[in-house]
Amino acid sequence: MQRINNVLRVHFADRKGTFLAPVIVVGIAMVVIALVGIIATIVGAERDALWEGMQYNGAVWTLLGIGIGIGFATMGQHLSFALGMGITRREWAIGSGLMFVIMAASISTIVVIGKVIEIATGGWGMGVRMFDTVHTSTGPWWQTAAQTFLIALAGMCFCAMIGAVWNRWGKTGLSWLGGVMLILLVLAFGIGLITPWEQVLRMLEALVSFGWGGWMSVLAGITVVSAIVWAILTRRAEVR
């Protein structure tokens, strides 16, 4: 357990970058949202219409995006330092996975608290939203907690996997990965072109009606697959 604690210490060594930076980023985003509310009030916009329209506001990604940076850093600047301290690759994978869960839970908690306050104050008194959006679920608080947690965790695991591909095969690996993703997109687009329009509409309707639980299952699947690939590649990670 002490060895895993050492991994967490490596990740949380830069306390300003880990804890202070997110607070500053969220603060700036909230100031921008507040300015939108002030300007909307001055020009006479209806508060109900503003509240409804801002459910698609993506400002919360300033917080969720932090998880993406954490995922990349796991296989970048931190790995070499950890291996130099005698931490094994297996310990690094376990400790980093635990750190992902801690950070995803922290981000989820911040969003849920922000959402509760946002709703209670009628959109910070101006009908604006930052936390109660479609990106983090406009349903009950527990849905927001689960959705935000899965988005953050999936983002960190996926980006850690990308970082592991880069660590293992460098630019060549990223090129192959990008090529495979491009081929899949082209195939999907091609299938869409040759498929009758009525069937395309039915497929789109099926995606729309997939439901909250279905999309959460997709996020969970992305998380599991990314985590497994990342853990496997981490066992062969090189010091760079």
Share of helix, binned: over 70%
**Tally of strands:** 0
Radius of gyration using CA atoms only: 21 Å
Q: Would you tell me the overall average pLDDT?
A: 82
User: How many helical stretches?
Assistant: 10
Transmembrane segments: 20-43, 63-85, 97-121, 141-166, 173-194, 214-233
Keywords: Membrane, Transmembrane, Transmembrane helix
SSE topology sketch:
Layout: H1 2-11, H2 15-42, H3 47-53, H4 61-74, H5 77-84, H6 89-120, H7 123-127, H8 141-194, H9 197-208, H10 212-234
Helix pairs in contact: 1-6, 4-6, 4-8, 6-8, 6-10, 8-10
Model description:
The protein is mostly helical and 240 residues long. 80% of the residues lie in helices and 0% in strands. It has ten helices and no strands. Helix 4 runs antiparallel to helix 6. Keywords: Membrane, Transmembrane, Transmembrane helix. The chain crosses the membrane at residues 20-43, 63-85, 97-121, 141-166, 173-194, 214-233.
Provide tags for this entry.
240 residues; mainly alpha; 10 helices; 80% helix; 0% strand; globular
Briefly summarize what is shown.
The chain is mainly alpha-helical and 240 residues long. It has 10 helices and no strands.
